[in-house]
Write a sequence for this structure.
């Protein structure tokens, strides 16, 4: 077995001497600085000769690694991984798998409950909204445009918002106004004002007997229509007009007629700002008919609450 003379392959000089040394040392010689150590250690810095380059062109063996520099690292022990404060040693898959952190993650993943919540939301599994969610809030007077949350029985009890005026306006009193029209043969693309008196044929102009005075301030209206006609299945549009303020809005949805002499029941809603004392009108707006209906007899009932 060959014997390697390690001592004979080692050359030591101080840093200044090495800096001035232009010798090309044979391959595998170890060149050591006698007065410069690796950072944070008592290990003198050294280079491995390659038989080609001088001291200045050779690379030091790696220094200690940092966040911005490659280098030599030490593996962290299990205790160092668990403590989690060492910034210089590295974690291995083995020490990570056996660490306190891994155990905490496994425990958390296996949880079926949360921390117990208190306050406006309570519980640790199924969470419950506490009554203080409402009782802790500032008390204010309801106003038009405010909303409340309801469970909609017509839609699988899904939560919906509704206008607070549906419940509180006018002390809960419902107001009703009535318009009528008799024996109307409507033309294409025309607006007809219903009358406030019986046995009146609707006309395409407005006058005093087409208006009702609204007794309260209101903005949300609903209307029910009973209508008998012959000869058309086309839709018409109902319009609510504030004569005093010269504003108007269409009811939704449109009213699809049926080709029958029986009553065409329909209901719709509209939002239109009206102040107590304003005069309002109900208008039938016709399309360009494919087949004009005849003999329309109309009864319109408008209901609303005060804002």
């Amino acid at each position: 077995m060959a014997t390697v003379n390690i001592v004979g392959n080692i050359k030591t000089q101080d840093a200044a001497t090495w800096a001035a040394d232009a010798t090309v040392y044979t391959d595998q010689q170890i060149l050591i600085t006698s007065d410069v150590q690796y950072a944070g250690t008592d290990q003198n810095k050294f280079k491995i000769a390659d038989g080609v380059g001088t001291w200045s062109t050779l690379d030091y063996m790696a220094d200690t690694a940092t966040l911005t520099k490659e280098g030599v690292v030490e593996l962290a022990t299990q205790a160092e991984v668990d403590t989690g404060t060492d910034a210089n040693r590295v974690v291995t898959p083995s020490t990570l798998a056996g660490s306190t952190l891994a155990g905490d993650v496994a425990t958390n993943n296996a949880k079926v409950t949360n921390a117990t919540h208190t306050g406006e939301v309570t519980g640790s599994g199924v969470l419950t909204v506490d009554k203080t969610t409402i009782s802790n809030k500032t008390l204010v007077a309801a106003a038009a445009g405010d909303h409340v949350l309801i469970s909609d029985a017509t839609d699988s009890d899904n939560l919906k918002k509704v206008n607070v005026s549906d419940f509180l306006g006018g002390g809960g009193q419902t107001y009703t106004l009535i318009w009528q029209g008799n024996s109307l043969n409507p033309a294409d693309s025309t607006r007809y004002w219903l009358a406030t008196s019986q046995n009146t044929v609707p006309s395409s102009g407005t006058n005093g007997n087409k208006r009702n005075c609204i007794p309260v301030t209101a903005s949300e209206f609903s209307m029910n229509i009973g209508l008998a006609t012959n000869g058309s299945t086309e839709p018409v549009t109902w319009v609510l007009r504030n004569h005093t303020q010269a504003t108007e809005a269409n009811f939704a949805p449109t009213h699809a007629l049926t080709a029958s002499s029986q009553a065409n029941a329909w209901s719709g809603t509209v939002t239109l700002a009206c102040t107590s004392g304003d005069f309002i009108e109900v208008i039938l707006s016709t399309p360009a008919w494919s087949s004009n209906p005849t003999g329309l007899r109309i009864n319109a009932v408008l209901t609303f609450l005060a804002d």
